[in-house]
Amino acid sequence: MAGLAATFGSGAMTNDIAGMTKSDVALIIGSDTSEAHPVISARLKRATKDGMKLIVIDPKKIKMADYADIYACQRPGTDVAVLNGIMHLIIKNGWEDKEFIEERVEGYEALKAEVEKFTPEYVEQISGIPAKTLEQIAEMYGRAPTGALYYAMGITQHTTGVDNVKSTANLQMLCGNMGKVGGGVNPLRGQSNVQGACDMGALPVVYTAYQAVTNADVKDKYEKFWGCSLNAANGLPMTVAIDKAYEGEMKAFYVMGENPMISDPDLHHAEEAFKKLEFLVVQDIFLTETAKLAHVVLPASTWPEKLGTFTNTERKVQLLEKAVDAPGEAKDDWVIHQMLANKMGQKWDYNSADDIFSEIARCTPSYAGMTYNRLRQAGLHWPCPTVEHPGTPVLHIGRFTRGKGMMFAIPFKAPAEVPDAEYPIYLTTGRVLQQFHTGTMSRKSKGLNNLAGPSVMVSVEDAEAMGVSNSQMVRVTTRRGSIVTKAFVTKRMPKGTAYVPFHFAEAPANVLTNNALDPVAKIPEYKVCACKLEKA
Length: 536
Hints:
globular; 20 helices; Dimethylsulfoxide Reductase, domain 2; Barwin-like endoglucanases; five-stranded parallel sheet; alpha/beta
């Protein structure tokens, strides 16, 4: 992964949205695209009408499957096995891009040895995907001149999330789909400007542009740039910090534009952790569930009330101009931070968002060629290293950052929790089109609430076994907690799997989810745990 580290560390698309129409085939895995990314899904739907082939692999028959040439229903948490099985068949049939592998890739032999045992029959036992369907997927994808791969949190939110992402990169390098228009590994970000936040160092292990805090040269550069001393140790990811708060080691949180009391796993545990804090500050635009626990709430401004940039899922930096004034005492985020920093003894003297962006460009290699004046003309894809550079819509053309891309031999590991006699149903979570994330904004709309409220999607077979029909109340229970919500009985769910949207405070999915973490990325396993269903 070292050759793709900057991209996959940030979760950005290697390719651009405009190039979606140039794919011969697209593979969607771990993304309920039409519900969570409707603009992207519209582009993909249009591409299928223009002749692009589409493969969808998902535990739920998502709406994108209606546009697919092949749909495969997998058991939650089996992505590595499925991807290894596809690669096994591509290699077996000689469909791999031998020239690309020879010239641009390391680690191929180890990968080949690992996937050898992932026969279609073996993968069917693990994933539930019929061997014949897997063979059809491998042929369609392996023989396509250019294939694009799209994923979202259905790939990353697992205890094997890093393994899953590496496997998507393995497949794209195997097929020679990196560094070409219409190809690439394309993770779809979960919220607007998540990409920009990560680019700006809003992660506990990096400065801007994913420059490691443990790198002595990087530390020295920033100390000279800012004229201060900096800590060379990695910080804690939020998931770990909550455990530290629960244990009494972490004393204070500053939560900004986030609502962990809906979005974090095992909410009973998270709530206890927040209540043990000595000091909690929440900076937001509404009084969220998290803000209700805060000692201090700072009113922030919304996107049309301020000047700044958004960086979207394709690494495109776009300028947002202020349209209206913020109400009351609400202030821009940077203004709040500067006031707070100066109260704590600093001497920050930014006068505008433009001042801050100019500083970003001076210390961030991938943004170095960007200015507000340039962005007023058009958005720019990073990396954009000089003011003459046009930006980089497609990464890795000709070579990877490290020279050759690195393949990894990835064994299959089961999820942290699988169904058993007591909890016999797979539970997975996600989004619905009509609501957004923790509902901080969308739940304020009566119209949207009328269109979509809390529910549990269950198969016809599981509903019949419980003796419930559509809209009757169901109790969903895991080892961590229980919720009662309406049944949404649908043929889109397979027997043995239930789906709960996480937007709803009155039936919070994350009371149920497992806080087991990926050992590297420390992301929780939101997408699979074991539950039982009962008529309420």
